[in-house]
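Q: Got a minute? One more chain.
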Amino acid sequence: MGNIYIGANLEFVRHADKSFEWGVQKAAELGYEYVEPMVHWGRELMSEAGYFHSVSMLDDPYRIRNTCEKAGVKISGLSAHCPLGRPEVSVEYLKQAIRYAAECGAPVVNTDEGPKQPWTTEEEDFVLMRYTLREATFVAERRGILIGLEPHQQYSKSPDGLDRIAALVPSPVIGINFDTGNAYLAGEDPIAWLERVVDRLVHVHAKDISVEQSEAERGKVTGTAVGCACGDGVIDWRKVIQVCRKAPRDIVFSVECGTVEQAERSIKYLKELLKEV
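A: Always. Here it is, folded:
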């Protein structure tokens, strides 16, 4: 345990206007061992036309499984982010994502608390999030699927807040999908925070933050969609690797960047660094 593998969150092809299949094949060509597909409900025009990488959960899960097998890559998890405090959206969405993950071969479903309703109190939000997570864990426990909670939004922007959400439901399938860039932008020390959650770590969003974005946004936001190429920004990846080597399970660094060129630079940088550390 404690082995580290490198994967690509398929957000890196979002601005290339390409399909899920194209993105998986490109990740394999760049040398990535894993990919993290994004799923959605219903039908979405750009995805249907092949200009966006997200996959509808109305499609056969074997679309993901077979595409990854053909390209020679594995699945690190599913990106299935939804607002936990809105059970009218998230309960059925997460349950379907978990069932979908079990069929397509994804060991983890990643999500976060999402934006809250403006009219609910903090006490109400945590009751609603507990309801959503309890319903999701019933489905996940039966299938051996892990739920990775990510720091991203109003309550999970701090270590105490993320811990509070993760402790809402006592279940062995709830873990942490740690996002290095979100933690940094929220104004926290990402290394100290990672040390705090390493025993519960199930997945990592390897997100670097440029100096320019750091100067403009740190302490003012709770996260960001994607980062810059790993190694180009402010995150100390050597220390991130050192901490993750202490995790009780193998961990995939799912690189979150915005372009194919950044994904190429990221894997070259991380591969070399993994050899050194």
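A: Residues 4-276 form a domain with the TIM Barrel fold (CATH 3.20.20.150).
Q: Perfect, thanks.
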